[in-house]
Design goal:
By secondary structure, the protein is an alpha/beta fold. The chain is built from five helices and five strands; from the N terminus they run αβαβαβαββα. Strands 2-1-3-4-5 form a five-stranded parallel beta sheet, sandwiched between helices. Helix 2 links the parallel strand 1 and strand 2. The protein is globular and about 60 Å long.
């Protein structure tokens, strides 16, 4: 009903202060590795190009978006420097970083400063399970494995199944 929806929204707004403003400030913290162009940084550059297309589309619809972009260089010191910048506490959204130790550092900062954060790339990071400020765009491996094994069991419960194990596939050990 309308009253219950209003009540839920009121509770949410008390817990998570809603800042209404005409613009959104987004920080992108990815390991572009611009000082080492032969590395995997190309993946993050491609992601950033797609993000720019989305930002452009939103701006054409009237959104005002301030975008801050940082190369984390896969370095704790670099991320600490980024988070110490005066504008950092005014971010509305942080996208990234990628490495688990850096995600934890930024997630703690985001929680302490009421900033939402998006974990775009890390599948194994567990910060999302205990930090209400984190959004994860990919399903974590434990959840994926649980869903997959349940679906597999349902589909093939009356069949004989043979699994061939690759001893070199350590990343699939849990699965």
């Amino acid at each position: 009903t309308i009253d219950s929806t209003r009540l839920i929204n009121d509770i949410y707004n008390k817990i998570n202060e809603v800042k209404r403003k005409n613009e959104i400030t987004v920080a992108v913290m990815l390991p572009f590795m611009l000082n080492k162009p032969e590395t995997e940084g190309a993946l993050y550059v491609e992601y950033y190009e797609g993000l720019l297309l989305a930002v452009d589309s939103l701006k054409k619809q009237g959104a005002s978006i301030n975008l801050y972009v940082y190369d984390t260089e896969q370095s704790k010191n670099t991320v600490k420097n980024i988070l110490s910048k005066p504008e950092a506490k005014n971010f509305d959204l942080i996208i990234g970083p990628v490495e688990d130790d850096l995600i934890e550092m930024v997630a703690d900062f985001a929680l302490a400063n009421n900033i939402n954060m998006v974990n775009v790339f890390s599948l194994k990071n567990e910060e999302v399970t205990h930090n209400a400020r984190i959004f994860q765009t990919n399903i974590p491996h434990p959840y994926l494995y649980a869903e997959t094994t349940q679906e597999f069991s349902n589909r093939f419960k009356n069949r004989k199944v043979v699994f061939i194990k690759d001893n070199n596939a350590e990343d699939k050990k849990d699965f």
